[in-house]
Amino acid sequence: VTAGTEAQFLSPLTVTHLSLPLEIIETLYDLGIKTIGQLAAFPPNEITQRFGAEVLALARLARGDDPAAFLPEPVPTDLSHRLALEYAVFFTDALCAHLEQVISPFLASLSVAGQGCQTLIVDLGCEDHTVKTIPVACDRPTASASVFLRQFRTALERCRLPGGVIDIVVRVPAVMTLSGEQTEWNTTLMAASYKQETFPAELEQCGVYAATPQRRLLPEQGATFVPLRTAVKYASAVVGDSPAVGYPPYALRSVGGLRLLTPPEKVSAVMQAGALHSIRRIGGVVESVRRQHGPWRLSGGWWQTAFDRLYYEVETAGQRVFLLFFDRLSAQWFIQGVFD
What we know:
The protein has helices at residues 6-10, 22-30, 36-41, 44-51, 53-63, 92-112, 145-157, 187-196, 201-205, 228-237, and strands at residues 80-89, 115-126, 131-142, 165-171, 176-177, 209-213, 223-227, 258-272, 275-280, 286-300, 307-316, 321-327, 332-339. The strands form 3 sheets. A 6-stranded antiparallel β-barrel has the order 8-9-10-11-12-13. Strands 1, 2, 3, 4 and 5 form a 5-stranded antiparallel sheet that branches. Strands 6-7 form a two-stranded antiparallel ribbon. The chain is built from 10 helices and 13 strands. The longest helix is centred in the first third of the chain and has 21 residues, at 92-112. It is globular.
């Protein structure tokens, strides 16, 4: 379903497409509510009185009011990870492979939120019940497992283990925010991965698309989706050129933890004393503003479609952080995305 046409797609579908008990569907039919569009237009207070919260939640989804889209992705809170080995390991390559098994999932989950770490503390439990502690440090915070593995390999070559390793414990002293340049598109890596992949014909028949970076100022135009075969050709053509896509300074937080809404969601905003007081989203959901940063102005496009926006990084009373902008041309407010 093309972005922006979800309501048009859902509106004519019957309410039998919803996961509702048969008796509720029959009651909706008795009231003349036969389509999802009719249910979405029904007054929320009457839905709650007649059917309860379950049907109300479905009606809000049909209107496009999905509060779950604004819930942050969970960032790992467990900063200690352990792997008990089934047999003693003596060789560096084997130890590095097991360490990668421990740290890769954790670092991947951090990178989703634009975070990483600068130091890992690796405790190697040996057969003689001794523990060898190896600190692994990088020059700056990173979410790359390969960087830590290179450092671990170097540190391991400089020390002597008393015996085979039967237990690996990794501790993370602190989690840090990655810089913008660490979270931007890396076309060279994308191209290298595409060249190594062979995609089954079934994927292309199902209409699977891949993202390719674009040199654009507006966040929602930073990528375009093309068929897999086209993406492979594009990626192969840019190997060695590495046209990394930079992001303009429209927020303090890392854009690596920003989930964009496409298209941006139109909202209304209440200003008090020149500052944002609250924002009202689709369906009447009100978010009280606790703290804001900005504005940052982003303008241009006179040669195509002009744009002139003021961006705000807004933290609400519910501890959600939105990327909000005021469109100076249309005098309207929009939510661009949510930070994890």
